[in-house]
Specification:
Layout lengths: L1 H15 L6 E5 L10 E2 L11 E6 L9 E7 L3 E5 L8 E7 L3 E12 L5 E9 L7 E2 L3 E3 L4 E3 L3 E3 L3 E6 L5 E12 L3 H23 L1
Antiparallel strand pairs: 1-14, 2-4, 3-6, 4-5, 6-13, 7-11, 7-12, 7-14, 8-9, 8-10, 8-13
Helix pairs in contact: 1-2
Length: about 200
Amino acid sequence: MLNKHLSSAFLGCAMAAFATGANAYQINFESAYNANWADISPSFGSIAGEVAVSYADPQRNLSTLRYWQGGYSGGHSAAFAGTGEGSTGVIYLTPLSGNSVTLNSFFLGSYLDANRASSYYIDNLSTPDIDQTSGSITIGATGLTVTPNISSTQGIVIHFGPTAYNVGINHINFSVTPVPEPDAYALLLAGLGLIATIARRRRAS
């Protein structure tokens, strides 16, 4: 009976290490900004202990994007980059140690609902190649919701442009999942081994 309780407790501890679920988040720029042309905080959207969010505006050589209230594809607010044509915006989602980040979706909208040529790509820094590219697309009155469902332990990069001044981004939905440490796998295997040993002894007796 003691062996049974010990094995159950041991396996329970091992399984607990794998029982942590994903935490879901969404970056909505209008939740913190309401003034046009406002610079977005370089770390806006970061979650302490889970993920660091950062931005880049290569045309202005700054680590931030700017905010515009409404006016993008059906009245959406958006973050935009640059000063005109040739502008690109970049957003980095970097999981902190022991975590994995999954990019679920984001929204691209066109200023004043006009049809505008644009593109985006998504890079999982855990892999050697760019993971998803749109090619040339048109963003118009309804905007575009992109659903990559890409996960990474090293980081994910969202790149949009070359019209990131008039095609903005918002509603960046992502989740963060703890990655079990190697010790957790060892504990689980040990627990399974203990149960197998007890089962063999019972059959033998």
